[in-house]
Model the fold of this input.
Amino acid sequence: MPTLNNSKWEVFAQEYLVDLNATQAAIRAGYSQKTAKSQGQRLLTNVDLQNRISELMEIRSEQTEINAVAVLKRWTELAMADPNELTSVIVGSCRFCHGTDHLYQWRDEGEFEEAQEAHFDLPDKEREKRIPPVIGGGFGYKWRKSPHEHCPRCDGFGFSRTVIRDTTNLSPGGQALFAGVKETQHGLEIKMHDQMAALTNVAKHLGMFVEKVEVSGGINLVVTQEDAEL
Done:
């Protein structure tokens, strides 16, 4: 690609791609700091400069293999990602849902024996205040089992747990959505990228939004953004 004849313009075009800041690009190209803002705005209106910047952007896209199609694909993956890949709320049965006569149900005999041992290890005064463990509802408690609709303890609502998923084998959408993990005083917090912002970008790219300026009686009304008819 040929460079611009004006060396300052060429430097400006190259520098503009660094941060897309016309004022700073003008300063780095050698223009006065006092006039850099106006110079930068003026230079961006120059057709030759616009073409050169477009050429440089195209070259950069080819070198990085990042182009409009790749960006749109990534936005789409993020916008359509399922947050349940990262974390979800699961409702399971309570201890009384499926126990015999809706009494407290143990996972197995081992859990029941551990509860008995813990009870008898208590100081005498403390142990006398508590009811010793009894088999009651039997064994076989499974938290992931659906709540019993007639359970007298939870009224059929069970109880919920927040589950953090394994992120090592996420789909492309899950990878785009995942923004890392943050440790808080309440435990781990999954961070996610903004899906609505990504969806808005996709919609704009596909022309689903159009800007309309209504003029009435010679007065320009507020510019609004509305859904285009599909």
Summary: Residues 47-64 form the longest helix (18 residues).
